[in-house]
Amino acid sequence: MAKELTSREDNYSQWYNDLVTKADLAENSAVRGCMVIKPYGYGIWERMQQALDKMFKDTGHENAYFPLFIPKSFFSKEASHVEGFAKECAVVTHYRLKNDPNGKGIVVDEDAKLEEELIVRPTSETIIWDTYRNWIQSYRDLPLLINQWANVVRWEMRTRLFLRTAEFLWQEGHTAHATKDEAIAEAEQMLRVYAEFAEEWMAVPVLRGVKSPNERFAGAIETYCIEALMQDGKALQAGTSHFLGQNFAKAFDVKFLNKENKLDFVWATSWGVSTRLMGALIMSHSDDNGLVVPPKLAPVQVVIVPIYKNDEQYERISERANEIKKALENKGIRVKYDGRTTQKPGYKFAEWELKGVPLRLAIGPRDLENNTVEVARRDTLEKESLLQQNLEQKVANLLEQIQKNLYQKALDFRNENTFKVDNWSDFKDRIEKGGFVMAHWDGTSETEQKIKEETKATIRLIPIEGYREEGNCIYSGKPSVQRVYFARAY
RNA sequence: CGGGGCAUAGCGUAGUCCGGUUAGCGCGCCUGCUUUGGGAGCAGGAGGUCGCAGGUUCGAAUCCUGCUGCCCCGACCA
């Protein structure tokens, strides 16, 4: 295993890449822009899936699965939707290969051309709404609350592990409602679910709000979002929830009879989070020693490392370690006993630190003597010696503390890096240094565009609730009713 | 898709300008001994169609032509 991690200060994006590969989360594959998610990384993703899936079910949703391929014609039915995705679609044009007549391997069989090309889904609104048409006739069929776990493909120009890959894993919820208010309530509810997940499970504090028209999802009336701040001062969109109005219902002719026996188009939402959350997790908590995983999502919450000088000691320590492991597991804690005899303790310490395991227990001859165990916290890197009595409770408490501490640290960081700015030169200066900048904006796309061109900063979100404040646009000087959050983003 | 760069062992690289024996080094890997409370030491060993296809030459990692792939910077994006 390669040892040294590039430091964040030396080269932040190199640090990120090193970390993802060295902590065994993922690696680049033979296919450009597509990654291989390794077992350890996938283990974290599975934890995320489980927690989210439960939250979706608790809010009344069911899982289903729709096809990977979408007929090309479906895409042209919702105008702004095509426009948003057309430039990054993978297209299936043929269904057969044959041996090259010139003997150069295998080639596409031109005779096997599809009548209608198939698009590899970049998102599933179109195929799902085409299906919903047959599922919905009456208000009694509503609401329809469905989620799917899937992979999607967006042919991105430049990719980065987890943050932007050509293929990524996600969930997409697609709901249909009888009224506008109900659909809006659904979109807002799912945003709350995402925010709660980010904060309570990932320990990543997020801002909630809506996107400006420029940044809105293709085909949406309103896009709600959560935004997190990464350690390098750039913002990351961590989840979105869209109120789609009747756009897709009209495009796919999904009508229902309401209680008054009148035909109406249904109201829609869609919402999703992706493996990008892995990127948010990594960049929120990790340090120059490697990954830091919040206990609630850690595949391994506690690792036990034995320290010994001979076989006899190894046997005795292993026995004790396995007893402790069992006791912890009985309390629902995920424990790994690293009894490898092929690596030295120092090596194991470094390796588990790199992988971000929240707590490490070391047991050596001294601990056997004294009935103690050395406990090391990944978040603070502090070590202390604890008596083995009632260790389960102490460990459980520590895990809880670590979870809270990670959230608090990330929150403090965000607060320290959120600034109110009231004039253009301060704005440019502040954006250059990173962080969220709260500033007045005149509400026009033109201004937003100009600001983006001149500073690379975008409006990350417009707060939904909270205080209103009169002011003047940072760029145009025109009147504004509230501050919005600007940042450079991933 | 524009601009720049790179391609040599699993990874990172030297050698390429100026052609010349068995292509060198570090990490990792294998074997043995000594080690084990923060990434061990010593000794021995395995591993290479030098991205691909042509060409020049007595001789090509090195020179020429064509191709392919990747990386970085822009425009695009969850």
Principal-axes shape call: globular
Tell me the CATH topology of the largest domain. BirA Bifunctional Protein, domain 2
Integer average pLDDT = 93
Q: How many strand units?
A: 27
Identify the notable features of this structure and list them briefly.
BirA Bifunctional Protein, domain 2, Rossmann fold, single chain, globular, Translation Initiation Factor IF3, alpha+beta, RNA-binding, 490 residues, 14 helices, 3 domains, 7-stranded mixed β-sheet
Outline the structure in words:
The protein is of the alpha+beta class and 490 residues long. It has three domains: 12-90 and 123-285, BirA Bifunctional Protein, domain 2, CATH 3.30.930.10; 300-397, 3-Layer(aba) Sandwich (Rossmann fold); 418-487, C-terminal domain of ProRS (Translation Initiation Factor IF3, 2-Layer Sandwich). The protein is built from 14 helices and 27 strands. Strands 3-9-10-16-13-12-11 form a seven-stranded mixed sheet, with helices on both faces. Strand 22 (418-420), helix 13 (424-433) and strand 23 form a beta-alpha-beta unit. Helix 2 packs across helix 6. The mean pLDDT is 93. The structure holds one RNA strand of 78 nucleotides.
